[in-house]
Design brief:
Blueprint: H1 13-23, H2 39-69, H3 84-106, H4 119-139, H5 144-158, H6 164-185
Helix pairs in contact: 2-3, 4-5, 5-6
Length: 190
């Protein structure tokens, strides 16, 4: 008669069952593997990054508040005027930056599970910012529709998109939607 017993209770004993369990992907007791990252080495770098993001957000929000308040009103429309939207965005950025400061300074650092920052990622961010800056400059001299399609195609290529949908259909459709919404629907010239 062939009877099977539960793992770790048969003649092979708990040691053999533990080895078999590890090879089959069974989890071990927490902290037993020794593969856990060192929290002390992770903490300061991540905290500095989050504080830097909060500082940049705070500076940008304050700049929007100040610059939005300096927008010249040609006609006093009352209520929502041209200053309103930049100031709402600036105030929102300030509130979120202060919340990020508070969270970063008061909560313990936890492992994020995200991939660590890489040089390639940093290059992509800088290239994206350069493309957007070039877009803003080009928009003054070239039609909105041409600049926007070119920007979206360049960003898609930068982030590895391939195919006709990502490189042609998506940029043209998004540009068309923005153009119809603002220029045709809201009568805001782009």
């Amino acid at each position: 008669m062939n009877q099977r017993s539960a793992p770790g209770t048969g003649p092979e004993g708990p040691a053999v069952a533990g080895v078999v369990g590890r090879h089959l992907g069974a989890s071990e007791e927490p902290g037993a593997s020794g593969d856990a990252p060192d929290r002390q080495s992770m903490g300061p770098t991540r905290k500095v990054r989050e504080l830097t993001v909060a500082a940049v957000g705070l500076a940008g929000g304050l700049a929007l508040l100040v610059l939005g308040g300096n927008i010249e009103l040609r006609v006093n429309v009352g209520g929502i005027d041209p200053r309103w939207w930049p100031q709402v965005l600036g105030a929102s950025a300030v509130v979120l930056a202060v919340a990020l400061f508070a969270q970063t300074l008061t909560r313990p650092v936890r492992e994020s599970g995200n991939e660590p920052a890489s040089r390639a990622g940093a290059v992509r961010v800088v290239a994206s910012l350069a493309l957007v800056a070039g877009y803003v400059v080009a928009w003054q001299h070239v039609d909105f529709r041409i600049c926007t399609v070119a920007l979206l195609i360049a960003l898609a290529v930068l982030y590895g998109a391939r195919g006709i949908v990502a490189l042609v259909i998506y940029p043209v459709a998004v540009t068309g939607l923005i153009y119809v919404l603002f220029d045709v629907g809201l009568r805001v010239p782009l």
